[in-house]
Amino acid sequence: MKLLYFISFLFFLSVNGQNYTTQLYNTDNGLPQNSIKDIVKDKYGFIWLSMEGRIVRYDGSNFVQYNNFKLKNLSFGDFFGNIKKDSIAVFNASEKDLILVSQRKPMAVSSVQITEPGGTANQKVYKQLVKNNFTVRFISYVDSYFIRMKSGSYYFEDNGITYVDKKSKKSKKINLNFPRSKLRRLFIHGDYVFVADAENKKILQLYQGKYSYISTPSMYTDADTKIYWQQITGQVFIISHGKIYRSEFLDKKLKLTYLLDYKDIDKEISGAMFYDEAMNKLYLGSSINGLKILSLSDFSVSRKKLPYQDEVCYAGISYGGNSVLTQEGIRYYSNTSERIFPASQSYDKRYILQDNTGNLIYRENNTIHIRYKNTGFTKYDSISFQNKEIDGLYKSGGLYMASLVSGKESYLYLFKQDRFKEIERIIPCKDNIDAVLRYNKDLLYLGSSGGIYVYSLIGNKTEKLIGKGLPVKQIIRTKDGNIWFTTYNRGLYLIKDQKAVRVPSDKNDFLANAHSLMEDRNSNLWISSNNGLFKVNKNILLQHMKTPKGDITYYRYTKKQGLSNNEFNGSANPSAHELKDGQLVFPSMEGFVFFNPENIKTYYPGSEDFYLERARVKGKMIQLKNSLFLECGYKNAEVYIDIPYYSDLENVYLQAKLDTEDSSWVNIKNDKTFRIATIEPGTYNLLVRFLSSETGKFVYKTFPVEVEAYFYQTLFFKILITGSIIFIILVIVQMRTNFLRLKNKVLKNTLDHKDKELLETNNKLKNESDYQKKLVESISHDITTPVKFIALLSQELNQSEDPKTQKKYFDSIYKTSEQLYKFTLSLKEYTELYKQQNSAEEEYSIYDLIETKRLLFEEIAAQKNTFIYNFCDHQLKIKLNKNVLLAVFHNIIDNAVKNTSNGEITITSAFTGSHVEIHIADTGTGMSDEQMMYYSGLFKKKENEHMIFKNYGLGLHMVVQLLIKMNSEMTFHQNTPHGTLIKILIKI
C-alpha cells in the first residue's frame, strides 16, 4: 500500500506543446473525394483544394466543387502562380490543360496565358518544381527540374545547377556537384533557395546565381527531419519526430517557430500542408484520407490522467500563483499536472478552501477535513457534527462558514476565525444555503434555493430577500463592486438597487445554465456554462441593460476553439480562479481549463469578406452579378452567402431577410443559404447582416432581387382591365338609364291599375284577418267536442250510483282525456300549420296517423252507439307534413262523429301511383247537395280569389285551405244508403 502511495506521489504528467482540436473531412461528411493534391488560400480568404477530377473551394463551413470543365484529363496537380495578383493556376496530369482560379472561381484557360510548368526543348524534358512534400517523386525521364524566381531561374540537371538571369537571359553554371536526390530537401524563402544537406550537416544557400553555406539550427540538417515547401504560399514546414515547426527567413537567418506536436504526421501520407496564420489553423491534405484541420488553441486543458479515475473537476484553490490544487492532492498547471500529496480519489469535489496558515479545508464523507500544510498535507484531522449533514463550506470576507442540514431545517455555522471546532454563531435558514458572500462588515448574502437572503450580523436577522424564488448557484463580486449571481436553469442575474435584474441571455439560451464568471483586465466577463465558455464586454453589457437597444452579442468558445469538452462545472466553491500570472481557470468535465484572456482571440469576418455570387433556382445553379432575377412561376430559390469564415459561424450572428413589411431576420445556418419562397412579383432587397467586431457592430449588405410577373400581374394589364371595367360600367349605367326611362312610362300607364289592385289587396288583408280569427275559433271548436264529451260523462258519473256504470264512465273519461292531452301537445304546431313545409324528413304510416284520431274520438262515438273502423293499409307510408294531415283528419272525423248515431264510420286507403286516397264514410245524417257543391267549389277558387265563409262550419274551410296548401283535393259524395263519403286525394 505504501508503494502504491509512493508511485501516486511521484506521478507526473507533462503536456508539451500547444493544444489543438482536429476536424476530419472525407467523403462521409462533405468532402467529394478523399485524395487531396494541394492546398492554397486565395486573396479573398477562400481555401482551394486540388483533387482528382475537380477543384474544391472551402469557406469554413461548406465545400463547393467545380468539375464542369470540358477537359479530357481532370486529374489536377499542384497550385502555382501569384496569390496577390489573384492568379492561382493548376495543370492537369498531362500538363496540357490549365485551370485558372481568379475572382473566386476556377475556369479553363489557354495554357499560353500562363507560363508552362515544363515542356521539351533541345531534346530535353523540363519540369517546374513548385512544391516539395513527403511523397514527391523525381522521375527519371525528366532531364531538368527548374525553379522560377523573381530574379531568374535555376535548372537542376546533369548533377549540376544552371542559373538563367531573368533580365539578361544569360546562363551561368554554378560550380557545384548537385545530385538530383538533394532536391528532396530543397525549400525557398523569398528569392533565396536553400538545400539542407543532411550528410554534411550544413545548408546550401542560392541567391541570384551565387551560392554559400550558412549555419542554421541542427534540426534543418537532421536526417530524420522532413521538409515541406510550397512556392505559391511561401510556407516551409520542418517536421521532426511528430513536432511541426514553421521555418522563416528573418534578418538573413533561418528561424524555426514551434507550432504543435502531432505524432500522427509520421504515420500519415500527407501530400499538402497549409498554415492559416490569421485563423491559427493547420491544414493537412492526404492522398487517401481526406482533409484534416488542426485548430491551434491558446486554451490549455490540464488533466491528471491517473488510471481508473475520471477527469471531472469542480472546486480547487489557487496554488503557487500559476496552478490549482484539489483535495485529491493533484496540482494542475496549464500544461502539466502532478500529485503533491497522497490522497484517494474523492467523490466529493465541490468545496475546498485554505485557512490563514495555508491548511486545506474541504468536505469529505460528511466531515470537515483539515490537511496541514506543515506536514506537506500528508496529515489531517476531521471534524463532524452530530445529527447534522454538512452541505457546503465557504470563506468570504475573513469569515469561515459551513451550511448544515438537519431533517428539514437548514443552518449556517459561523466559526471563530479558522478554528472550526469553535462555533461563533448559528443562523437558522428557511432554505438550503448553496452560496455565501460577505457584502460588508454587517451584511451576508446567503444564496439559497429560494433567492438571496440578506442577513444582518449586527441585527442578527434577515433584512430582505432578493430574487425571490430563484435557485441560486453562485454569487460573484466583480472588480467594480457589482454583485452577480448564477442560478439553476434560470439564467444570470445582476443585483441592482437591491433587486435581481436578469442579464440578457445568448440566442440559444445556453446561459440559462451559467455556472460562474470572471472579469479579466480588459473588463471582459468570462462566463462558464453547461455548453461552452462565453465572453462579453462588461461595459457594453451594463450599458445594454441600462438602455436596451438591439441585441447583446456573446462570443462562445467550444471544442472548435480548442476546448476538450463544452460542459463546464459549477455548483462548487470556488468554481473559477484568477491566478497571479494572469491566467483564468475554470473546472470542466474533462479537467481544468487554463487560459490567458489576453491571448484568446475572437474571429470576425471583414466587412468586405462577403459575396453573393451563387444561387440555385429550379434546381439549377446560376452565377449572380449585380442582382437576382426570378422568372415568373418559380417555386423557391436558394441564395448562397459566401463568407470565408473558419470559426464558429454562430458567433457572427449571420442573418438575412427580404425587406417586406412583415419580414423578420432569419438566422443563417452552416450551409450559409437563404431560401426565398414564392412571393408577389416586384422588386425587393435581400438584406444580409453579420457581426464584424466585439463592439456589437453589424455590417449590412443589400442585394437586389426582382421577381418577374405574369402578364396578368403587370401594371399595363391592370390598367387595361381597370379601363375595361370602367367602360363596361358606363355602358351598363347608360343601358340601365334607358331601361328605367322606358319602365317609367310603363309605370305611369299602370299606376291607375295598381291603385285598384292596392284597394282590392287592402280588402283581402282585412278578410284575411277575419279568417285568422275564425281559424282560431275553428281550433277551439275542434277541442270543444272532446271537452264537452268529458263534461257530459262527468255529469253522468255524478248522477250514477252503479259501480259498474261508474267504472265505465271513468274508463271513457280516462281514454278521452288521454287522447285529448296528446292532441293539445301538438297545438303549437297546429297553430303554425300555414308556416310549415309540406314535406317531412322521415316516412310514417297513414294507418298510424288515422289510428291516433280514431282513439281520440272512439269513446265519444261509443256514447252515440257508433263504431269507428280503421281499415287503412299498414304498409302505406308517405313523407308529408304530419301536423297538416292530422288537422285534416281531425276535422273530418270530428264532423262524422257529430252527425252519426247508432251507426259506423269507416276509414280506408288506396294508392293510385301519383295520389294516396283516404276514404272517410259515415252512416249519419249526411250533407246537403248545396253544401257539397259549396265545398267542392272552394278547390276551384283556391288562393286566387278570396274565400267567403258560409255558416256551414269553419273546420271544413280550414281543411280546404290546408289541402290546397299541399296541392291536394277533397271530394264529397252521398254514402249509400245514407250518410256522407269524403275522398281525400293527397298528391305525393
Task: Summarize the structure in words.
The protein has 988 residues and is an alpha+beta fold. Among the domains are: 19-297, Methylamine Dehydrogenase, Chain H (7 Propeller); 611-696, no CATH class; 784-987, Histidine kinase-like ATPase, C-terminal domain (Heat Shock Protein 90). It contains nine helices and 72 strands. The strands form 17 sheets. It has a six-stranded mixed β-sheet, with no helix packed on it. A five-stranded antiparallel β-sheet has the order 1-33-32-31-30. Strands 13-22-23-24-25 form a five-stranded antiparallel β-sheet, with no helix packed on it. A hairpin with a 2-residue loop joins β9 and β10. The longest helix has 85 residues, at 715-799. The N and C termini lie far apart (112 Å). It comes from Chryseobacterium cucumeris.
Give me a quick take on this structure.
Residues 778-988 form the Histidine kinase domain. The protein is an alpha+beta fold and 988 residues long.
Strand residues, percent: 35-45%
* Average of the residue pLDDT scores: 86
If classified by CATH, what would the architecture of the domain at 19-297 be? Answer: 7 Propeller
Q: Total helix count?
A: 9
